Amino acid sequence: MLKITPYLGILVVLVSILGIWYPILGYFVLGVFATLLIISPFKGRWFCGNLCPRGSFNDFWLTKISRKKKIPKLFRNLWLRWFVVILLMGFMVFRIIQTQGFFLKIGMVFVTMCIITTAIAIFVGVFINPRTWCTFCPMGTIQRQLGGKQYPLKFDKDKCINCNLCNKVCPMHLTVNEISHKPDCIKCSRCIDVCPKKALKF
After folding, report:
1. Which of 168, 110, 96, 162 has its CA nearest to residue 139?
2. 69-74, long-range: CB within 8 Å, 24+ apart, which pairs?
């Protein structure tokens, strides 16, 4: 992860709270969306593990009060994930159309989306695991679709000693020490940093 990653979570708080009085802050959400669309075709879900404000909020803030249970497989189901994409995107487009193009009102739509998704992320993050939301986040699902095969994590089985440290630190609860396609890897590099045999790399 980047040095700035742990501090990006404050942006979620600012948009979700101050955005109620300053709707223009909602356009930050649009900026995030545009950024990940640009990055994902080349690096998959790299944005999620390095630049995502909510990911940072979940990892470094929410983790302090989370029950840290295993993320249920249900949330990884692609049918559920695309349903969430269609539902939230449909709601957002519907609200934007209703605003009749007023700049600040459109900003408020983005603020509302940020509040709703943050509330869901906090709920599942506290009662299950900090990164639970990230398993079915619409933005993560879209990034997976656009660049799930890009910038893959490479595993050298011959170097592996099966210490499972990589699996323990993976925030997405992926089985890291196996040779398989991992489109939901968020490229946070925690597994690489903790591996005593340097069996992992991008």
Report:
1. 110
2. 69/127, 69/128, 69/129, 70/129, 70/173, 71/128, 71/129, 71/131, 71/132, 71/135, 71/172, 71/173, 72/128
| pLDDT greater than 90 at residue 99 | no
What count of residues does the chain have? 202
CA 10, 5, 164, 145 dihedral sign is positive
Give the whole-number percent of the chain exceeding pLDDT 90. 93
Cβ atoms of 143 and 48 closer than 8 Å: yes
Sign of the Cα torsion 201, 145, 88, 68 reads: negative
pLDDT at residue number 179: 86
Residue 15 φ/ψ, nearest 5 degrees: -70, -40
The three-state secondary structure class of 201 is strand
Q: Which two tokens stand for residue 146?
A: 């656009």
pLDDT at 19: 96
